[in-house]
Structure formats: C-alpha cells, structure tokens
User: Which sequence fits this backbone?
C-alpha cells in the first residue's frame, strides 16, 4: 500500500467537524497568557522560583523552613516566585510577603487543590501549564525545590532538562530536605549515571542544602563576579525555550 493510500486512515474524523475556531481561540488564549505574564513581571529581577507540595500545612517543619528561606531571600533582594497555591507555595509567598522584595504567585486553574493564597504582591493566573512553567524559568536566577509530589518533580525535571540541554542558562538548583531527597539523588546516581542515561557531571547541576542562610549564601556565591543579569547570549537562548 502506498503512503498516499494510508493518509485518510491517519486523519481524525472528529477534526473534520471541529473547525469552528476553537483551536484558533486557544492559541490566542495562550498568547494572551504569555503577554499578560511578561508585562506583569517585567523588571522583576533577580528572582528565585520556589517549588513544593500543595498539601503541607502551616506548622509543619517543611512549611516553617520554606517560609524562613523565602523571608531571607526577600530581605536579601530576591523576588520570590511560587505556584501561588496552598501548602509550601503559600509558605514561600508568606515569607516573601513579609520581606523587602515582591512575593509573586503564578496561579494555575485546576479542578481541585489549587486556590490562590493571600500573600501575593503580584498575582498572575494561568489556564495552560506550559505557559506558566516558562515564566518560572524565564525570570528565575535560582530554583529552590522543597519536598513535593508529581508537580514538584515535574518542575525539577524541567529545570534540569533545560539547563542540561543548554536551552536555559546555568543557574543554581537547590534541593531542600536531605531526608526527603537523598534517596532520589542516590537513585539518580546509581541508575541514571550508572546505566549511562546521563553524564556524571550532570549531577553537579543540583545541590542539597539544608540551612536557610546557606541557601542564600550559595546563590550569591554562584553569581559572584558575573552579576544576576543574563548575558546577551543567555537572553537569546531563553527566547528559544
């Protein structure tokens, strides 16, 4: 059978009856989210994106540590970007909200769990995950990753992949909570490095740091001598994310 005879079988019949502009409007909606978010966050640098579980409440040790880290970052001059929801996202925004620099929430519309927290100087709402994820990357001078579930792992994997492949500039990726992350890091070293899935030096893209003050110091140490602003080449690279 020739390829041209197979083509009709590859066409989704439903698509023939859905040309009512829905896809075009969706593309315009995505463009609108990029435009609004970029305008709202223009000039917000340096900033640190913080990720963590939506299910950890006030009073939990993870919550208190997240708030402490965010407050220290904010007082040190970093805007703090979180997912804008409850749990450790709220803790990050709450800490930054009490500090000197802006607390930013990138809120996503979800069927459950996600509700915007009250500690946001700048709040941006998203319907599309990938538009939101790009904003975490585009404006961050560092990532601080707290314990979390699938969403946190997704963000961590995204950050590591973009830096590893050169699609994003190299920035600090800091894991907080040694007891939580150590087994995962050891698995990566044993399986991913051990079986040749990644290079040994790829493990150097992230670091485990426990103390809040040491996290702030590590970010400043990384940028010592070069400044927080992306170079022209780095800006161009990030336009092609």
Assistant:
């Amino acid at each position: 059978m020739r390829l041209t005879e197979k083509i009709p079988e590859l066409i989704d019949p439903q698509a023939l009856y859905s040309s009512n502009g829905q896809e075009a409007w969706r593309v315009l909606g995505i463009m609108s989210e990029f435009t609004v978010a970029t305008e709202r966050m223009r000039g917000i640098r340096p900033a640190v994106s913080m990720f963590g579980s939506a299910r950890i409440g006030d009073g939990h040790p993870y919550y208190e540590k997240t708030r402490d880290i965010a407050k220290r970052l904010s007082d040190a001059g970093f805007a703090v970007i979180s997912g804008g929801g409850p749990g450790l996202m709220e803790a990050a925004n709450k800490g930054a909200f009490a500090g000197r620099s802006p607390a930013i929430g990138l809120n996503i519309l979800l069927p459950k769990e996600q509700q915007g927290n009250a500690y946001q100087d700048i709040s941006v709402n998203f319907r599309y995950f990938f538009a939101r994820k790009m904003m975490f990357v585009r404006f961050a001078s560092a990532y601080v990753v707290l314990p979390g579930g699938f969403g946190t792992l997704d963000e961590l994997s995204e950050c590591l992949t973009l830096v590893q492949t050169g699609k994003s500039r190299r920035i600090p990726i800091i894991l907080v909570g040694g007891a939580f992350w150590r087994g995962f890091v050891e698995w990566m070293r044993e399986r991913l490095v051990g079986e040749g899935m990644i290079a040994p030096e790829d493990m150097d893209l992230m670091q485990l740091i426990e103390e809040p003050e040491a996290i702030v110091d590590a970010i400043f140490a990384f940028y010592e001598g070069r400044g927080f602003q992306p170079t022209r080449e780095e800006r161009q690279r990030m336009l092609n994310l």
